Write a sequence for this structure.
């Protein structure tokens, strides 16, 4: 999905929010913004690009000004720690559920709300139960996913954010327990925003429930263009009958590849006007879209 007008202020706000946590010098902040606004898509002069590609270009500026290779490393670690605190309670919820697949899908998509500057402080198990009860997901789409899973022996699962990956782990555990499928979990290769890289996935024990590999994309891209991925990842996805993809960045990029139609199921939350309008859902909706 290419950018919408709403993507422009969104990317600008994200970049400024990140820079405010890294730099206190107001002159530097202003110079950063001046340079970012030289990018044509952020001036509304190029709508032929995806949001992850714009974010990649802005992120390069953030790294340049901050002097850090992984500017949100501490934030990512914090998000994972707090999500891991919720993990045992979430697992108990799933054990007591009448439909573990529905509940873990909801949790995994709700986890997609943890964006680059997001937090989960103060979130309790009681609140999680309430949120699961109140959250709606398309049961027909869930049944279709169950059917797809029951017909495959291997699933390729493309991850997204830190914090969120803890709930991905719970979903993967549940799928493996019920369907006995092998699952390969793909992370980013280079740090970008709060997206999970290989070491982040290992830190939450993802390797205990899945084979973890990097996407092999050597640019800070919060999405997945298959033609830029490693040969191993290209082969895995092309050879797979089912790919589960998390988050809007992966949706934006992978939905541009028509060769992938029929094999990808996208899990994301409607967090902005473009994502909601594209799927005709209200803000905050849990989206399970079979491409």
């Amino acid at each position: 999905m290419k950018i919408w007008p709403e993507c422009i202020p969104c990317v600008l706000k994200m970049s400024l929010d990140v820079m405010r946590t890294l730099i206190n010098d107001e002159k530097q902040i202003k110079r950063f913004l001046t340079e970012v606004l030289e990018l044509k898509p952020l001036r509304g002069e190029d709508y032929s690009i995806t949001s992850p590609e714009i974010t990649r270009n802005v992120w390069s500026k953030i790294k340049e000004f901050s002097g850090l290779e992984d500017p949100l490393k501490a934030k990512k670690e914090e998000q994972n720690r707090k999500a891991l605190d919720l993990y045992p309670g979430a697992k108990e919820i799933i054990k007591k559920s009448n439909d573990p697949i529905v509940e873990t899908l909801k949790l995994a998509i709700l986890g997609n709300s943890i964006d680059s500057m997001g937090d989960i402080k103060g979130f309790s198990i009681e609140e999680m139960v309430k949120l699961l009860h109140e959250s709606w997901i398309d049961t027909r789409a869930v049944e279709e996913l169950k059917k797809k899973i029951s017909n495959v022996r291997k699933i390729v699962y493309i991850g997204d954010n830190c914090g969120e990956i803890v709930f991905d782990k719970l979903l993967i555990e549940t799928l493996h327990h019920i369907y006995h499928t092998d699952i390969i979990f793909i992370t980013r290769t280079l740090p970008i925003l709060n997206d999970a890289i290989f070491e982040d996935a290992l830190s939450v024990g993802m390797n205990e429930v899945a084979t973890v590999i990097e996407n092999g994309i050597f640019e800070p891209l919060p999405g997945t263009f298959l033609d830029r991925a490693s040969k191993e990842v290209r082969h895995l996805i092309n050879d797979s009958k089912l790919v589960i993809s998390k988050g809007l960045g992966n949706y934006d990029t992978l939905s541009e590849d028509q060769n992938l139609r029929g094999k990808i199921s996208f899990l994301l939350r409607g967090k902005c006007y473009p994502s909601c309008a594209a799927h005709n859902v209200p803000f905050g909706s849990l989206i399970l879209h079979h491409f």
Remarks:
- Residues 73-95 form the longest helix (23 residues).
